[in-house]
Every structure is written in structure tokens, then in C-alpha cells.
Amino acid sequence: MRHKPGHYKAPRRPSPPSDTETLPSMTISFDPARHAQHLKALADADAAIESHLTELETQSDALRAQWSGQAQQAYERTHAQWSWHMLDRRATLKAASDAARKAAELLVDADRRVTQSWHSLS
To answer: What average pLDDT does the segment 14-26 reach?
Structure first.
């Protein structure tokens, strides 16, 4: 369809929903106390793993004095790899815990702002 110069026909906009139509809704639920429990469980698990690894290392140090040659070299190599993986595990767990704490802060803040918005409308 051609239009006269200087005239523009806007495209039709969809009509707003009627009172009988329902719009999709979204619900976000967050329980800060439960979230804190999960973070504590992660920290407790990390501490337990660290304790067991320390005990294992103490026991292996006692045996290591009896090793020589290839056995000692194999242990040194394996221990270096194991130590690196443990450091990586701790860093990963810390990053996950930090991200979970930040997400909790954002969710609590979003909930606070939504509540304030609803109160300002009423």
C-alpha cells in the first residue's frame, strides 16, 4: 500500500490484554536461613575433607621415610599433582560459595525492592 508523502501509517499494535486474560507470572522464592544452612554444609564438608587429607598426609609422611628410589619419586610426583588438585578444589569451592552468597544478597535486595514497590502502589 502506498502512502501520500508526509503521511505515515503506524503499524497496528497488539491490543492490551482484557480483564479475562491472564498474563504469565513468575515467582521467585528464596529462604535466607536455608541458604545459609547450605553454605555452612559446604564449608563443613570442605573442612572434613581437609581434615581427612591432613590425616592421610601425616600417615604417609611416616611411611615415606621408609621409601627410596622409584617409590619415593612416584610419591613425590603424585603428591605434587594431588596438592595442586586440592588447591584447585578449595579455590573452586570458595568461588562457588562466594557466588552463592552474592546471589543471596541480590535476591534479598530484589525482594526488598519489589516489596517497597508494591507498598508504594497501595
So the answer is: 62
